[in-house]
Write a structure and sequence with these properties.
A: mainly beta, Immunoglobulin-like, 7-stranded mixed β-sheet, 6-stranded mixed β-sheet, B: alpha/beta, Glutaredoxin, 4 helices, 7 strands, globular
């Protein structure tokens, strides 16, 4: 085989190869897909076992979809309907939330709000048409701490109408786990210290369901790397040693390709970043992917392990064009109705300021939005915090009055991130989950174009279930 | 960084006891804390000003560490320290730690639950006595060890 070929030829041939690679079983796919027409999927929620930390340790007892960690990839096409039949073989109720997809409220998977929960032994069929291409994911919205924390999560990838010029399309589902010494999931879900502080951050991080020593790459190749943080609470700040990743989409929504500030990718729970990564390292070498978000607790997630083969192409590729934009309605900021949402509570809430302050009894720890605490995962009869007018633009100021980080997620919509602490942010990208650092503010704007009762909550699951959750009614 | 601003309150609270510190043989301690909790640093500073040598270690496994050490969930403070073979959980004043180390009772250690305002390393003014509990590893309910 000729080692060096022209970039254009090479791209095309690898596009075909890339599609083949994914099918070949690098990642699990939804179980019944091969036997069903396109767009039809089946997911079974059940207990299972997974080898998360390697053969030297026992397999971990998990809860999962389709018997795998992560759950099967659901691969849809933009604008084409899909149908997912979900069977609940757990011994408790569940639902599935299709995180980031702009879909009808009845398919949003919030128990008691958008659907009755799926009882043990029962089935629910989700049907919707993804309007946006990009990287999304699915997870339960019932008993979230345990169901997500024990492993129930999978990627939902919506393909663009045409191919994207990359050699490979790779997914990394990044999840952390709190494991005991015998590699089992530690008990203590919802303990008050986690609830009032940074949530249940784990001690083991996996890539696509297993601790990763290395991920194989080829010098010269261009990879679309889809990062999904499906952790309960862990925030990541990723650096690719001696590489210059370009961000091409955030939370499934394309943006102008750009390098992250300081080469550091901030990825909170539930957030996704699509990267374009040109493999400019040397054949045979290894480069660490480092997460140094928590002070004093930096570690490496995996290593890019270059095959000992000559580079795929002689010259580096041209800068990539932006991905095609999705049809998200543009908010009119000049006429938008403004609303402040104060995030409150937690340990060390305030030095006498708003929030719960220092606490003598952590069991009363709670969070709130504008003084109202909604707890749990969603249930019938939840009163809306705000009622929004269908079709109108809204500008929300998320003001974090707490000492902790909050990835705030709005269901059923994508919003523009306008500014941080009053300063406009570059590119004002779309997102469905935005990280709000302690004592900072973030302005977001969106068109309330989707009727229904939509959740707005922190995606640190401990924070969500202990009060940092609200309903926005759009009528 | 925004995080820094929280330190200030903690440090201020820690300064006044430092003035009355008595020079003595340093007592070695290891303190485990949430990487994002800043009042724990204030507590470490307070200990150092009182003759302790403190090794601060950030961890996301605090709940497991304190439970394993014998501190039941409802009695946990926001950080966990190991000193002289005992666990000391939360913002326990140094006089109580010294009392523990000199009396050497047959317990796993002591805890001041939560983060009471005005306790060493915390901001604010003390409004009520701190109740410090003795914990054991045999599953018995904690008992009051000291009120200060």
């Amino acid at each position: 085989m000729s080692a060096i070929v022209g970039a254009a030829t090479c791209r095309r041939s690898f596009l075909v190869g890339a599609a083949g690679l994914l099918v070949a079983g690098t990642f699990p796919r939804a179980s019944a897909e091969s036997s069903k027409p396109p767009g039809q999927f089946a997911l079974t929620a059940a207990k299972g076992r997974a080898s998360l930390v390697g053969k030297a340790h026992p397999a971990t007892g998990v809860w999962c979809y389709g018997g795998t960690i992560p759950g099967p990839i659901i691969r849809a096409r933009q604008g084409e309907p899909i149908r997912i039949v979900v069977d609940n073989n757990l011994s408790e109720e569940t639902t599935v939330h299709w995180h980031g997809i702009r879909l009808p409220i009845g398919m949003d998977g919030v128990p008691g709000i958008s659907q009755p929960p799926i009882a043990p032994g029962q089935r629910f069929t989700y049907e919707f048409t993804p309007p946006d291409a990009g990287t999304f994911w699915y997870h339960p919205h019932a008993d979230s701490l345990q169901q997500l924390g024990r492993g129930m999560a999978g990627a939902l990838i919506v393909d663009e109408p045409g191919p994207i010029a990359v050699d490979r399309d790779v997914l990394w589902m990044l999840t952390d786990w709190r494991l005991t010494a015998d590699a089992q999931i530690a008990s203590g879900f919802g303990n008050s210290m986690d609830a009032a502080m940074s949530g249940r951050v784990g001690n083991t991080v996996t890539v696509n369901g297993a601790v990763s020593k290395e991920e194989r790459v080829r010098a010269g190749e261009r990879v679309r790397l889809r990062l999904v943080n499906s952790s309960l609470a862990r925030i990541m700040a990723l650096r690719f040693e001696q590489h210059r990743p370009l961000i091409i989409a955030i939370d499934g929504q394309p943006c102008d390709p750009h390098e992250p500030d300081g080469g550091r990718l901030l990825l909170g729970p539930a957030m996704r970043i699509d990267l374009l990564l040109d493999m400019q390292g040397k054949p045979g070498r290894r480069y660490r992917v480092i997460d140094d978000f928590y002070d004093g607790l930096a570690y490496w997630v995996t290593k890019l392990a270059y095959e000992d083969k000559p580079p795929l192409r002689a010259h580096s590729l041209d800068p990539p064009p932006a991905l095609p934009r999705n049809p998200v309605p543009e908010p009119d900021v000049t006429t938008a109705q403004r609303q402040e949402l104060r995030l409150q509570g937690g340990m060390m809430g305030g030095g006498g300021m708003a929030g719960m302050g220092g606490m003598s009894d952590m069991s009363h720890a709670a969070w709130a939005i504008n003084g109202t605490s909604m707890t749990g995962d969603g249930h019938a009869g939840m009163a809306p915090l705000l009622t929004l007018q269908l079709g109108r633009s809204y500008l929300f100021t998320l003001r974090n009055d707490t000492a902790w980080w909050h990835p705030m997620h709005l269901h059923g919509h994508s919003f523009r991130v306008l500014s941080r602490n009053g300063r406009p942010v570059p590119r004002q990208q779309w997102a469905d989950t935005v990280l709000v650092p302690p004592r900072e503010t973030v302005d977001i704007a969106f068109v309330a174009d989707n009727p229904g009762d939509w959740m707005l909550h922190c995606h640190v699951t401990d924070h969500q279930v202990s009060g940092m959750m609200a309903i926005l009614r759009i009528v | 960084m925004k995080r820094r601003t929280f330190c200030i309150g903690c440090l201020l609270a820690a300064i006044s006891p430092a003035l009355s510190a008595v020079a003595a043989e340093p007592i070695r301690a290891t303190l485990y804390k949430n990487p994002q909790c800043t009042c724990c640093e204030g507590y470490a500073t307070y200990l150092r000003s009182n003759g302790f040598e403190v090794d601060v270690r950030p961890t996301n496994d605090l709940n497991q560490i304190s439970q394993k050490a014998g501190v039941p969930e409802k009695y946990q403070g926001c950080h966990t320290m190991f000193v002289g073979g005992y666990v000391v959980d939360g913002h326990v004043p140094v006089e109580t730690v010294r009392k523990l180390l000199s009396e050497r009772p047959k317990i796993a250690g002591i805890t001041l639950p939560g983060m009471p305002i005005g306790s060493p390393g915390m901001y604010g003014k003390k409004t009520q006595p701190f109740v410090i509990y003795a914990v054991t590893k045999d599953g018995k309910a904690p008992t009051v060890y000291a009120e200060v």
